């Protein structure tokens, strides 16, 4: 671990590590559930120390980690494969296309990275209960990581979350409270719970270490590409915290003088859950009016990290776009059928965005590596693809029955 302090991403005030827990004491005062978070904190490290101590031949990733290794949960998280997908790349006019398969985390999504670090923090603080609101994956991730420790997880989740995700949470032993309402309702309730009844709140971006946990995917991508900065990274966007985390990983590398530029970040949202896209395009924030997308993990009315996501796009000279559910399910099938990687609809949203981008005026033309983040495993929601495929009927086990 390297010494760090927290800095408010809105006003720039800095805080000693234990002087603050969630939001900036000043900007956070103006926050109330139902608007994007204000006063989100970022960890600012002693970057000279990182520069001095980081050794590419033997990388110590704990230099970038804001919780001491002795508190890390025992369950291994991250270090997921980054694979080159030439067959798909050729179809999209890209000579160096890669997929980072974060569905291969223990609970099947990138959210394990954030939960890992928040559970580590709870252990450091001696707190025994962690509370979270989730569309499904953050909760499964928290439940899985907690299961490897003696920390308890209390989870508020929309009752309509896909079955497999609910099964995961319950089986991992979390206390699960399905909410008769939306993810946004669950988010507000969990804040009220920790404020009045206690526990450490893991809500995305509200706890600053969720962003720090998610940034590890960028450190890995950089190393897996032979310490090369990709040309672009495609990220599915709901609350905008994965996007913010991907950005922070490269910002940390840049501040430490280990890279000299950021990759272009391309944020992809579902057409009905497009608050961040419209915010980036117009500069004016307004909620998504009716997020009905099948990509449940990115179905958000009011994205908690809307401000941070917009900054990430602007600072990386990236862009955002939206895709329809049909494009998402088509991309899911294409990714599965061309690469062997089966990712849930929210994961395939990044791929759908790339397909759309390559067919238009903003297409990526450079020859540098382009990375699709596959954020969650396909088996988490088999109902979604079943709406457009059919399983062949059974035949008698005799050769004559086969027309193949
Ligand atoms: C949470 C999630 C996302 C979106 O991340 P945000 O931080 O909410 O933008 C994308 N894909 C999957 C599989 C997720 O679980
Ligand atoms: Zn502030």
Automatic annotation (TrEMBL):
Its cofactor is pyridoxal 5'-phosphate. It is an enzyme of class 4 (lyase). The keyword Transport does not apply. InterPro entries: Ser/Thr_Dehydratase (IPR050147), Thr_synthase-like (IPR004450), TrpB-like_PALP (IPR001926), TrpB-like_PALP_sf (IPR036052). The keyword Lyase applies. The modification N6-(pyridoxal phosphate)lysine is found at residue 111. It comes from the Bacteria. Residues 77-376 form the Tryptophan synthase beta chain-like PALP domain. One of its GO terms (biological process) is L-serine catabolic process. Keywords: Lyase, Pyridoxal phosphate. Belongs to the threonine synthase family. This is Threonine synthase. It comes from Candidatus Geothrix skivensis. The lineage of its organism: Bacteria, Pseudomonadati, Acidobacteriota, Holophagae, Holophagales.
């Amino acid at each position: 671990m390297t010494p760090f302090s927290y800095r408010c991403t809105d006003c720039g005030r800095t805080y000693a590590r234990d002087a603050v827990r969630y939001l900036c004491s000043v900007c956070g005062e103006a926050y109330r559930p139902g608007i994007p978070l204000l006063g989100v904190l970022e960890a600012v490290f002693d970057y000279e120390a990182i520069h001095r101590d980081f050794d590419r031949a033997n990388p110590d990733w704990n230099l970038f980690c804001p919780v001491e290794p002795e508190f890390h949960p025992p369950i291994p998280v991250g270090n997921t494969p980054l694979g080159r997908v030439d067959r798909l790349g050729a179809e999209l006019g890209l000579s160096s296309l890669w997929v980072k398969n974060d569905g291969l985390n223990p609970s099947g999504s990138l959210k394990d990275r954030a939960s890992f670090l928040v559970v580590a923090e709870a252990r450091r603080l001696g707190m025994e209960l962690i509370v979270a609101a989730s569309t499904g994956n953050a909760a499964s991730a928290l439940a899985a990581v907690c299961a490897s420790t003696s920390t308890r997880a209390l989870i508020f989740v929309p009752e309509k979350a896909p079955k497999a995700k609910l099964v995961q949470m319950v089986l991992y032993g979390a206390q699960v409270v399905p909410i008769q309402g939306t993810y946004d309702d669950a988010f507000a309730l969990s804040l009220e719970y920790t404020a009045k009844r206690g526990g450490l709140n893991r809500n995305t971006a509200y706890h600053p270490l969720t962003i720090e946990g998610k940034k590890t995917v960028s450190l890995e991508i950089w190393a897996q590409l032979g310490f090369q900065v990709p040309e672009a990274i495609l990220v599915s966007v709901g609350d905008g915290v994965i996007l913010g985390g991907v950005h922070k990983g490269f910002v940390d590398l840049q501040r430490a003088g280990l890279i000299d530029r950021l990759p272009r970040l391309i944020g992809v949202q579902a057409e009905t859950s497009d608050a961040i896209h419209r915010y980036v395009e117009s500069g004016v924030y307004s909620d998504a009016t009716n997020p009905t997308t099948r990509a449940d993990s990115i179905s958000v009315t009011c994205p908690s990290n809307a401000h941070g996501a917009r900054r990430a796009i602007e600072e990386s000279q990236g862009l955002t776009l939206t895709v329809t559910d049909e494009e998402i399910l088509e991309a899911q099938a294409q990714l599965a059928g061309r690469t062997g990687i089966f990712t849930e609809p929210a994961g395939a949203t990044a791929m759908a965005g790339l397909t759309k981008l390559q067919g238009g005026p903003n297409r990526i033309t450079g020859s540098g590596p382009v990375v699709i983040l596959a954020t969650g495993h396909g088996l988490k929601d088999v109902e979604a693809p079943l709406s457009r495929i059919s399983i062949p009927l059974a035949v008698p086990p005799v050769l004559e029955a086969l027309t193949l």
